Amino acid sequence: MTMNEQKKCVTIFVISDSAGETASKLAAASMAQYPTIDFSLFRRTFAKEEDKLRKALEDAKRENAMVLHTIVNDRLVKIANDFFEKHNLYHFDILTPPVAEIERLTGVAPTREPGALHHLNENYFKRIEAMEFAVKYDDGKDPRGFLEADVLLLGVSRTSKTPLSLFLANKNLKVANLPLIPEAHLPKQLWETNPKKIVGLTNDPDILNGIRKERMRTYGLPADTSYSDIEKIRKELTFANDLYEKLGCVVINVASLSIEETASMILNALNLEDHSYYATESPEA
């Protein structure tokens, strides 16, 4: 195939015997590397029975797709692999190689249970508790939560405090956040909180100006208001950065960062672990 004949549109099928989140994330990460290519992404999930799997495979064949799959049942894996070989379809088995290597290292056979990652176990309920905590202590509604939190996020309006709180809560972390307004009183609990669990979020004035203007437009209001005034924004950011210096906390500029990137930086900076996938205790305990 010559360069001129190469595809400018790629079809990817995610096939899974569970929710397909792992393969979907890999597909998204791969697609992000090719901003000039058009992609079609199809998900065929909860393919736990042979007939449903074969239907998904035929769909992928019809679209001449590349397939990313997470299937744990040995028999279904063989059916899928035989199909791919027969029809010369590109496929990537995400689970089988690492699962097989763990079995080789430990001598312990895997459970081969679809969706085992999403058990409603103690770890799951801790995550729900963390999400409820984030909602309860969002936007500084109750500063008493600062002292209970694993992470306290500070920032002026539109620095992604709430989305970050919920994203980190999904990693089993209790997160509170406080919006910073120069004229507003700072709660005494802020000064009682260990600065090693505080993160100050900041942004570039011009970027924040654009974000706030767009926010006004979504409300059907004029874009140019005191909320989006560039000089007011600069004063807010100066106030916030001065406060961060006084607190001695970690500071992260979110201007060019995604929620995922910012969250990862927070985990690294505060030496926290992502507990969302960890078992809380051994099955034999």
Automatic annotation (TrEMBL):
Residues engaged in binding ADP: G155, V156, S157, R158, T159, S160, K161, T162
NCBIfam families: PRK05339.1 (NF003742)
EC number, as in UniProt: 2.7.11.32, 2.7.4.27
Keyword field: Kinase, Nucleotide-binding, Pyruvate, Serine/threonine-protein kinase, Transferase
One Pfam family cited in the UniProt record for this chain: Kinase-PPPase
Catalytic activity annotation: N(tele)-phospho-L-histidyl/L-threonyl-[pyruvate, phosphate dikinase] + ADP = N(tele)-phospho-L-histidyl/O-phospho-L-threonyl-[pyruvate, phosphate dikinase] + AMP + H(+); N(tele)-phospho-L-histidyl/O-phospho-L-threonyl-[pyruvate, phosphate dikinase] + phosphate + H(+) = N(tele)-phospho-L-histidyl/L-threonyl-[pyruvate, phosphate dikinase] + diphosphate
Keyword Metal-binding belongs to the record: no
Protein name: Putative pyruvate, phosphate dikinase regulatory protein
Role according to the record: Bifunctional serine/threonine kinase and phosphorylase involved in the regulation of the pyruvate, phosphate dikinase (PPDK) by catalyzing its phosphorylation/dephosphorylation.
Tree of life domain: Bacteria
Family per similarity comment: Belongs to the pyruvate, phosphate/water dikinase regulatory protein family. PDRP subfamily.
Enzyme superclass (EC): transferase
Any GO MF annotation of the entry: ADP binding
